[in-house]
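User: Okay, second chain of the day. Same drill as before: sequence in, structure tokens out.
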Amino acid sequence: MIRRCCCSLYNKYYNSPSNYYLFNSFTKHHPLRYFSQSSPDVILKKFDRLTPQQRLYLETIKKDYDEASLVRHIRHSQASERFIGKFSPLYTAYKEYCNTLESIVECHELMREPEMEEIARADIVSMEKTLQLSYNDIECEISETLLPSGDNIYLEVRMAAGGLESSVFTKDLLNMYENIATSRGFQWTVLEEDSRGDIGIGNAIVSISGPDALGLFQFEAGVHRVQRVPINDTRVHTSTAVVLVTSKPDHIDIKIDEADLDITYMRASGPGGQFVQRTNSKCRIVHKPTGIFVTNQTSRLAQDNKNECLKKLAAILLKRELDETMSSTEQTKKSQAMHGDRSDKIRTYNYKSGVITDHRYKVEVSGILDYFEDPDSFMELHRRVTSVWQLQKLSEIAEEITQSQDQSSTSSSSRRRN
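Assistant: Same drill. Structure tokens below.
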């Protein structure tokens, strides 16, 4: 049912350029009631709010979700469970959206019958609202699946170019972030703060804990530029501050799959008596994905030696994981900070025009004073930035999917010729 509505009709419409011009000319000269005489393609185009990139992403997720559900019914799979757990809300929202679209198309069919026209029209008005709510849920869930998730982060704010004014701006940013975090009920803990008198801050590091804290603050990472008149001058100065955002792992859980282990038992050597030397009590485990191997023969029992080997292996893998996490964190900080120069800005706060500009995503919002005081103003910019980022990300994913499909088609054609 879903595929009939959201795949067949949608693809049929978008693969037919003539329908596009038919729709434009039709809606320009005729009111809604005449849609009852239109084809399902035209009706679908009028009410469908999804972009082609969103549609392609959602259809791919739906296909993978159905396959994961099938695998879960056949055998237990941790990968399938994780996938279903992550994408279940998005799958449900998309299913609701498709069902509503299909119901709207069916109501338009009923409008051809005079005695059902008024009832069908009222149902369509109601379903349009439901469709919009479903679309809002889809946008929200897409963002959650694409954005990195994390409830615990470190946020660091440093003064950069601009001297005293930079330290004042750094403190303004820190106060704004604290206001946003506390308004959402997040835990805000100052770990380090280098104050510059009563008006400025040289550097501050805080720990923030709360639902999806990383998703809320991740777009703040980078160089922030302010253009305003400092308190000790009459001319406009340009200063910068650097914001760093890194995820704080709750814990690093090392899980070792038995299938990844090559376990061998052999005769132990050295002291221990005839029991040790005549039984295969020594254990040697090779972790095939990494090539790491450990051995143990301290116990007379093979099972005890195996357990000790597993502990050793887990400790080694944990250290590797910690080293990789630390290296990744340092690389993230370097990429976010750049050089802190005025030209490195990701965002500009221009007090003269009262406009805040995000240069990465070409987003502007007005009301600069409210922005630093009102969390709702911050959230408005955050929503708009997230929306643009989502479209860019979906375009990249759509391109990758299209290339993969083209390669598969080329390979299939080549096999058929051979």
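The chain has twelve helices and eleven strands.

User: Thanks, on to the next one.
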